[in-house]
Amino acid sequence: MSASSDGHYKVYEEHMKTLRAWFVAYGVGGPVLFITQKDFAASLVDSGLSKLVGVLFLIGVLLQALVALFNKWVNWGLYFYDDDEDNPGDSSEEEAAPRRLQKFCENYSSKVWVDIAADIATLILFSVATIIVLMEVSRGAGAG
């Protein structure tokens, strides 16, 4: 990896961490805001959509947490097996499973589409939940 690509990766990593933090903060803070505002909460409960909104936010947060957890494990595997490259000739049966795990980690770590798909799915889930809340609150405000 060149110094330039290493610099690009650091920028990507910072953006990834920031976006994930914003998603989780919104996914937790959004429902708290909606629940603690009496008008929002009453409109949602009256509409029967409060559980749906809660589930959409919960799925979005869980999706981000699972992707982060899986990425953590994969990167631990890359770190752990990085020292094993000194002995590439050992092909015993005992070494087969760790080598498969190493290959899996190497292959998965190059799949940025997983993170992109999780981010897009989270954005859609949170957007739908927010739109439902805003529509119900504006409907409730128009009725009152």
Give a quick precis of the structure:
This protein has 144 residues and is an all-alpha fold.
Give descriptors for this structure.
single chain, 144 residues, mainly alpha
Q: Can you describe what's shown?
A:
The chain is elongated, with a radius of gyration of 22 Å. It has five helices and no strands. The protein is mainly α and 144 residues long. The chain has helices at 3-36, 38-47, 50-82, 93-109, 112-143. The mean pLDDT is 85. It has one domain (3-143).
Helical fraction = over 70%
- By DSSP (H or I, 4+ residues per run), the number of helices equals 5
Distance between the termini: 62 Å
The overall average pLDDT, rounded, is 85
- Unreliable residue runs: none
Alpha-beta content class: mainly alpha
Shape: elongated
Order of helices and strands: HHHHH
Give the percentage of residues in beta strands. under 5%
* Structural domain count: 1
What is the fold's blueprint, element by element?
Blueprint: H1 3-36, H2 38-47, H3 50-82, H4 93-109, H5 112-143
Helix pairs in contact: 1-3, 1-5, 2-5, 3-4, 3-5
